[in-house]
UniProtKB/TrEMBL annotation:
Residue ranges occupied by any Alanine racemase N-terminal domain in the UniProt entry: 27-224
List of residues that carry N6-(pyridoxal phosphate)lysine: K35
A Pfam match: Ala_racemase_N
GO MF term set: pyridoxal phosphate binding
Protein name from the UniProt record: Pyridoxal phosphate homeostasis protein
Key words, A-Z: Pyridoxal phosphate
Amino acid sequence: MGIEERYANVAAEVAAVCREAGRDPREVTVVAVSKTVGPAQVGSAVAAGARDFGENRPDGLVEKAAAYPQANWHFIGNIQSRRIPDIVGSAALVHSLVEERHARKIDEAAAAAGKVQDVLLEVNVSGEQSKGGLAPGDVAALLDACGGLAHVRVRGLMTMAPQGDLDAARATFEGLARLHAELRADLDPSRAALFDGLSMGMSEDWREAVHAGATIVRIGRAVFDDAFEASGPGAGNLA
């Protein structure tokens, strides 16, 4: 099965799971995580209808965004201060903001680029030491700090769930959704209207994320990796 068919099947299944959850499929964006493939493979996904792609390294982001400027490019990796201008120059949405100093540098780079940079705050809901992100109790402070930056717009939250345990993943996603609702309730109406994003769920656990309220799911292997169909969790179900 080629990339075109895999992407089409993933998109169809995401739509079906949305309907199963009582949601409009248009509420959920599928980000095809292209960090392990080259521009040619991205082109195959574009041909299948993919419009959103995720990269975790600035070099890959810059290269592929230049090759496919018609797509929406998401930066999903750790932020390095010295690469912030490159990230801001290519990313429609940055998923992984965790430090105020980076927020301020993003603000400066976005001002220089003549744009307002959309970002998500990364939250470590599960508390795993191997996971990056803010502790839930620290999110409000960074959200407040970003409110004073003219060229940074916080669009919501992002998290990663523990691997190999769908019950734990479900609890993580539900926890992020609760935190998002609590924070949104405290924002003024204009900021609350834009604070609408929940990036959660990957190839193994995106179904649980959709049921918990995800607006963005990050799916890489189910789109780009031949081996995932045969050996990944939920084989045959495009996990």
